[in-house]
Amino acid sequence: MEQIFEPYAEFAKDARIKNMDEYHALMNKANDDYEGFWGDYANEKIDWFSPYKQVLDESNAPFYKWFVGGTMNVAHQCVDRHLATRKNKAAIIFEGDNGDQQVITYRELSYEVNKTANLLKNQFNVKKGDRVVLYMPMIPEAAVAMLACARIGAIHSIVFGGFSAEALRDRIIDAEANLVITADGAYRKGKPYMLKPVVDKALEEGCECVKKVCIVERNGEDISWVAGRDYSYNELIKNESSKCEPEPMDSEDPLFLLYTSGSTGKPKGVQHSSAGYILWAQMTMEWVFDVRENDTYWCTADIGWITGHTYIVYGPLAMGATTVMFEGVPTFPDAGRCWSMVEEYQINQFYTAPTAIRLLHKMGENEPAKYDLSSLRVLGTVGEPIDPPAWKWYYEAIGNSKCAIVDTYWQTETGGHMISPLPGATPIKPGCATFPLPGIMAEIIDEDGTPTPIGEKGFMCITKPWPSMIRTIWNDPDRFVKSYFGDCKKDGEPVYFTGDGAMMSDDGYITITGRTDDVINVSGHRMGTAEVEAAIKKHPGVASVAVVGKPHEIKGEGIFAYVVLKGEDTMAEEMEMVQEINKIVLTEIGAIAKCDDIKFVPDLPKTRSGKIMRRILRSIAKGEPITQDTSTLEDPSIVQKIQTCII
Ligand code: PRX
User: Fold this and answer.
1) Is 622 helix (H, G, I), strand (E, B) or coil?
2) What domains appear along the chain, each with residue ranges and CATH number?
3) What is the pLDDT of residue 1?
4) What angle do CA 28, 32, 36 make, to 5 degrees?
5) What is the pLDDT of residue 574?
6) Terminal Cα-to-Cα distance of the chain (whole angstroms)
7) Contacts for 56 with CB less than 8 Å, ≥ 6 apart
8) Ligand 1: distance of its center to the CA of 411 in Å?
9) Confidence grade of residue 631 (pLDDT, cut at 50, 70, 90)
10) Euclidean distance between CA atoms 466 and 66, whole angstroms
11) 319 with 282: CB under 8 angstroms?
12) Cα–Cα distances in Å, from 403 out to 6, 221, 351, 530?
């Protein structure tokens, strides 16, 4: 019998959504009057400069528009509007890798954001609509830079600091950014690491659009300076005034781009809007984490991913919360680091990825017992399904069997949570994202919109537009339509398909079953197999390659590459090739794409029309018996040959 964990009664009685009746009432309201539902929240939550005229414009679907005609500013929403009541409240609590601490109040945040906004305008000539690439460590200046862009209407595009120079270059070029903000580097596991040299390398070729580079000093290591291009943030900021009027932004003006992997080799620049995005970021913070005025909230993600955007910076600040930002890694100086920080800052909500929970469980099963974790009320997970042993340890050892675990299902494209338990209302089943959030019309259907029978896998779709949804793919509207609105229809109209499969139980619980495309999930991050394949193909000795995911104890999925070489190679040469291939992957993408297995095979299993049968390769990688029909293969004997090669 499946175990169900009821919300902790003590918590539920003060929660924003207190029980399932309240949840259903909200859902019914959204069903009965969808635009009224969203319009009311937009009025209540957003500090509009001028009111919107229409809640939702569907006339040019799927290019939906929300809160049409309204003007506001996300930096004003996240900072200015709190100054009347929360001036001296901590906005950001920063802890460095070495344990250095900094508390930034809303007043101080306002001061820094205004100065930085002026710096962008006056020194770097950044204008509304310009793209600014941020290649930053996890330091408060990163959040300040995001908000400064928002304040003047520039569109930021953050590139995760673990991406390589090549990956950074591709993203700079695609976004046609004219400014890059970076840091000399930062600290990791007690040692300095560098970012600026990666920017230098990225800018060597093809980035003529970038006129200036702004460098924040963090670790003080030696870096090279290009005269006329590189400027010190710390020097220039001294001269700027702390008053910069926020630019009135249209609801639909883009707030940021964030590149993510798709099923082709080229990353997609997911474009988010201003009003719709910030509304849902704020509402989900309030509903899903149920953060209270005096709480301290910590999300361990990196600002280079969507989780860092929505749930370290924008969501918490929009609601006026105190958000913790951590530069280091959870295992340094030991696997008790997170728990010591929970004790130190009296964290009330802790949000992390299952991969981190598995790692911390493995490396420090008994660490939590050494700390006082009694401040915790809500625990969150994101990025991949959480497996039962990790769930149990998180629930018992971290949450003392009193905290709800909110398994939040969402994506870069959805902007915020889509399916998640509500901590005071939802009876939780471990490993299950449970129910769509109020206002989110998530349905499991087939291509034609027929609901998938209970207990069977179907397509996880969102059948009505929602405010924080992706608006387009930067510079590629056709790809936007094809990628998300090409596969499923409901009542004859294309609907948003997430790319995930899902299943519903007879009591309506939704379990995400994983991607249905060639995208794998490494440590909770999306990685397109085509992107890794494109990198590996750059090795001159490689004739062809296919990459698949393989279950991995800590990372969830690891990267498994089948490589066909051009010539005959000896064993020793193959060992060298493994190193060379991984070096290329590191240069082209970054350490997150490092292959766990590289196996050399005589050929790939192709159909007569030349299509690689990846399902077979996935089964072989897992060591499963091959049950698929192999008769359509050009050479059915290849299956056995590959199996022999990978032993
Ligand atoms: O496959 C789903 C998985 O992560 C994908 C989104 O990846 P990304 O855009 O990088 O964003 C990650 C952080 C939001 C989804 O398509 N995923 C995300 N959350 C869950 C999940 N799979 C299962 N359970 C989740 N809670």
Assistant:
1) helix
2) 33-329 (3.40.50.12780), 442-515 (2.30.38.10), 519-646 (3.30.300.30)
3) 63
4) 105
5) 84
6) 39
7) 34, 35, 38, 64, 65, 66, 68, 465
8) 5
9) confident
10) 8
11) yes
12) 10, 43, 12, 40
How far is 580 from 574, CA to CA, in rounded Å? 10
Tell me, in angstroms, the distance from the centre of ligand 1 to residue 166's CA.
25
Please provide the DSSP assignment of 292-317 as one string: -TT-EEEE---TTSHHHIIIIIIHHH
pTM of the model: 0.96
Residues with CB under 6 A from ligand 1: 260, 306-307, 382-385, 407-412, 433, 498-500, 512, 515, 521, 525-526
Extended strands (E) in 1-86 = 54-57, 65-68, 71-72
SS (H, E, C) 552-575: ECCCEEEEEEEEEECCCCCHHHHH
Report the pLDDT value the prediction gives residue 647, as an integer from 0 to 100.
Answer: 75
- Ligand 1 centroid vs 419 CA: distance in angstroms? 11
Closest ligand 1 atom to Cα of 386: 24
pLDDT at 262: 78
Question: Looking at the predicted structure, is the pLDDT value of residue 142 above 70?
Answer: yes
Cα 572 to ligand 1 centroid, rounded to whole Å: 39
Ligand 1: residue of 352, 355, 525, 526 to mutate (most ligand atoms within 8 A of CB) is 526
- Residue 302, number of CB atoms within 10 A of its CB: 20
pLDDT digits (tens, 9 = 90+) for 311-326: 999 999 999 999 999 9
Q: Residue 18 has which token pair?
A: 């207190």
Tell me the C-alpha distance between 410 and 306, whole Å. Answer: 10
Task: Establish how many alpha carbons lie within 13 A of residue 641's alpha carbon, considering only the half-sphere containing its beta carbon.
Answer: 12
Read off the tokens for 26: 């909200």
Q: Token pair of 469, please? A: 């949804």
Burial level of 53, CB count in 10 A (0-12/13-18/19+)? Answer: exposed
